[in-house]
Amino acid sequence: MRKYFGTDGLRGTANESPITPEVISRLGEAAVHLLADGHNTPRLLIGRDTRRSGHMIEAALASGAAARGAEVFLAGVLPTPGIAYLTRHLQVDLGAVISASHNVFSDNGIKLFSQSGFKFPDAWEEQLEELIENGRSLPHPTGRQIGTIGHLQDTETPYVDHLKQTFPKGRTLKGFRICVDAAHGAVARVAPRLFEELGAQVSLWNASPDGVNINDHCGSLFPDFIRSRVLAEGADVGFTFDGDGDRMIAVDDKGQIWDGDCVLALCARFMAERGELPGEKVVATVMSNMGLEVYLQSLGIEFLRSQVGDRYVLEEMQRVGAVLGGEPSGHTIFLNHTTTGDGLVTALQMLTVLVEAGDSLTDLRIPMERYPQVLVNVPTPGRRDPEQIPSLQEAIESVRGVLGSQGRVLVRPSGTESMIRIMVEGQEHELINRLAQELAQCVLDTQDQEDIERECP
Fold first, then answer.
1. What is the value of pTM for the model shown?
2. Which terminal CB of the chain, N or C, has fewer other CB atoms within 10 Å?
3. Nearest CA among 224, 236, 222, 156 for reference residue 194
């Protein structure tokens, strides 16, 4: 359990540790120190989503980096995958995105990308933690060696141009009516521009960010909103994104919701039929439904699982040579087009299937039988490791004994919030719901007992 970094960079309540100007400034110093080779001036690109705290964190990160001699470029509001793309396109040394993704506006965080556009590996983040904790005496240049901070102009255009190149050459979206929920986040300007430049008619919703309404009962965690708009307007498809644009959930013309597992199933079949799925492999996480695994195996496609987190999906994809992977939450990675989960790339790949097949999304519905799945989140005082709770481990083994080979149980610490996440999957909904609630109660009972022991040692 690391102190600062979770499954997707730093994250927490803005202005509470570790998301404070002091810690973020030290992170800027540490990152530049890690990248500096003694004579070159590191170049850092910073983007952000629309949260109120984004300006404060941007200033702290930029000042810390400049204090160590870096040349800092501020890209303003841009989706996370846009910064990943520009990091390698502009050949800077480090890309940083200030965002808490799908979380509420009061949270914020930082995601880091290497020069190649890939997220920092665990080993780098561990070095950063060490420098943040013990690097207060890092040397600071003076005079002409102090770094600079400047603003980039029109960062949207090169990103949109890149996105359009992932769509089939010579094809258009003319005749398509698309509903978009921008979650009052970073795709609010980019998404409609992209689809309209490709010829679609766009109905845009939740695209007026005010610093506090990001993800507020809209976006990928609330797909029923865009579902209602698709049905009301008779649209061909709806796309709903999260605050920083790396997730996308779709809705078809009949109002059916397509999560990340459905997207993987559709695109894997399409790509395999066209010989565009090297090795016939797809990578998902331990959270993906067993129905996806069964369906892909029926097509002769190998299904592999990684731990939760899109960067772990990516690592497994690179290890086995896969080009398609993702999570049910809507992070989907098309490694032949991008280096990280990109909701807009995912939307374009789904539209590619529609254009090439000449069918509606409803007509292309995947015959994937889902196993019932129950998810329970248990808040904890700080990050807790379930493996360090003996009574919980005993309860988990008991549940596995009940489910046998007809189900799965997964209990893990959240990588982005202070809670333990419980997932139970099986063929009988009533049974798995009861088992999930029993595991949640075990966590709560343990916390109550610990509180009593602290009060009455």
1. 0.88
2. C
3. 156
d(CA 270, CA 364): 10
Per residue in 218-241, pLDDT tens? 999 999 999 999 999 999 999 999
For β-strands 373-379 and 419-425, DSSP reports them as: antiparallel
List domains and CATH numbers for the chain: 5-154 (3.40.120.10), 174-256 (3.40.120.10), 259-358 (3.40.120.10), 373-455 (3.30.310.50)
Contact 92, 70 (CB under 8 A): no
Please give the sequence-ordered ranges of beta strands (E in DSSP) within 206-288, or none if there are none. Answer: 237-241, 248-252, 257-258, 281-285
DSSP-H helix ranges across 281-369: 290-298, 310-320, 343-357
Residue 452: count other Cβ atoms within 10 Å of its Cβ: 10
Spatial distance between the Cα atoms of 362 and 219, rounded to a whole number of angstroms: 21
Q: Quick one: tokens of 456?
A: 């009455």
- Which candidate in 99, 101, 203, 288 is catalytic? 101
Place of tokens 């798995």: 432
Residue 387: closest CA among 412, 369, 408 = 412
H helix and E strand count, the chain: 13, 19
CA triplet 357, 359, 361: central angle to 5 degrees?
110
The C-alpha atoms of residue 247 and residue 235 are separated, in whole angstroms, by: 21
pLDDT tens figures, 353-393: 999 999 999 999 888 988 898 999 999 887 788 888 999 99
- Ramachandran area for residue 283 (φ above 0: left; ψ -120 to 50: alpha; else beta): beta
Place of tokens 């939740």: 206
Q: In 3-state terms, what secondary structure has residue 201?
A: strand
Q: How far apart are CA 444 and CA 439, in angstroms?
A: 9
In the residue annotation, 114 being an active-site residue is answered as no
